Amino acid sequence: MLCQRCKKQSATVHLTEIINAEKREKHLCEKCAAEEGVTMKQHIPLNELLTSFLVAQAGAQEIANLTCPECGMTFVEYRNHGLLGCPHDYDAFEKALTPLIQHAHEGGTHHVGKVPRHRAGTATRQTELLRLRRELNAAVQREDYERAAELRDRIQTLESQ
Amino acid sequence: MTIDDLTTRSGQWLSGGPLSEIVISSRVRLARNLAGFPFLSKATEAQRREIEHLLGEKIGSIDLGHETFYVDIARSSELDRQVLVERHLISRQHAEGEGHRGVILSTTEEFALMVNEEDHLRLQALRGGFQLEDAWKEIDRIDSALEEKIDYAFHDRFGYLTACPTNVGTGIRVSVMLHLPALKLTNELEKVMRAARDMHLAVRGLYGEGTEATGDFYQISNQTTLGKSEEEIIAEFKDRVIPRIVEYETLARETLVRERPVALDDKIWRAYGVLENARAVSSEETLFLLSHLRMGVSLGRIDRLKLDTVNRLFLLTQPGHLQKIHGSPLDGEQRSIARAEFIRRTLVSNN
What we know:
The complex is a heterodimer.
Chain A: E1 13-19, E2 22-28, H1 30-35, H2 46-56, H3 60-64, H4 75-81, H5 89-92, H6 94-104, H7 123-141, H8 145-160
Antiparallel strand pairs in A: 1-2
Helix pairs in contact in A: 7-8
Chain B: H1 3-6, E1 23-32, H2 45-60, E2 68-72, H3 78-86, H4 92-96, E3 102-106, E4 111-115, E5 121-128, H5 132-147, E6 154-155, E7 159-160, E8 172-179, H6 181-185, H7 189-198, E9 201-204, E10 217-222, H8 230-259, H9 261-277, H10 283-298, H11 307-316, H12 319-326, H13 332-349
Antiparallel strand pairs in B: 1-5, 1-8, 2-3, 3-4, 4-5, 6-7, 8-10, 9-10
């Protein structure tokens, strides 16, 4: 197929535009495409990717309603901001995140790199710390300083273990 | 050491090094978060302060191998933050962010540890030219030393946990800044860029995410951080991706010299002529002209200038640096005049 514009080069850029429900097709060579300001969109924003995944998945509603018990972030909230709320989200949203992570990392699903040599922090202990810090915030907010002091002590004990 | 001390000298990322005719700089960054704290999107201001304090204390207690200083970004002036961005020591996002945040800098500018950027900690090492291995070794060493002191958020399956899942796993971002004027002039650039993207690499402009490629500078970086080891990712860049692009650019430069020497010299000397004589010049035009000048110097088509002088001009003619050197704030028009004057003076004193 020849380029519609210069009618010399072969068309390598194929574009479908939908304007007011009217479908139009363009077939251009690279040079004409560049001159017409057609740029190839290379990076699909994460949010768009995620939305398309969600739509494609059965039980999308169930996934959208996922909430992390530790930081209170919902999956929809994450989808809108693109950033997770706490480390526990990776477990709370694991099912929904896995296809997304896989797509972003050329199919990678498991870490194979460096591992901290010093790994006192088991998953349960890390989650416990998150929970204590959340309670501490709440205590400070309602000005319950006795409870706050108690929580601070527990955080310190846990951290020094 | 203060930011003012940095502003008159050339940055680490423009300091020369192997293959520096084409490879401007090599950078390796690691994203880390503290275990037991929420990520920053859910952290309170008090927690941000606690993280900043804790990291400052722990980093202060390890042997970094260099003299360092801390910049409290939240309390820094806009101009100081701009200077740090122009020197590639902090990201734009960090400069424009909110809340308690800062950066620990080595006085040699070989590493920068950003606190409370998108993740609790972002460790990056920077080297002039093609020195990825060196950058990785240094940042790996600091990361390992720090790991003895603190618990990072780490997951058996997903590795180092990051606020954005696109960084999860190793948390590594390898970036190489390239100067590719000949590929641009010979219209071969788009092919190279497409090939890079096919290899799941990101291609960005001078200042990272969302910036245009100006002055024919391109930043190539990995996007995959999970399912490959740090060494594999570095090796891919070191042994395959970058040598290939350098080879293409070299070939394109040779082709220009062989087949279009007059057109090539015309571009180079016109750039020189404008820079030597202009009375007002925008930063965009400066980048464009300096790019041609830099190619001319690298190819030995112009022998009255050193590559280092051109590199210094790239950095010091940017808005933040220009105002620092001038000693007072300047609006856009005043900057154009000050920039032209600074360039003229530099070129004359190097003749």
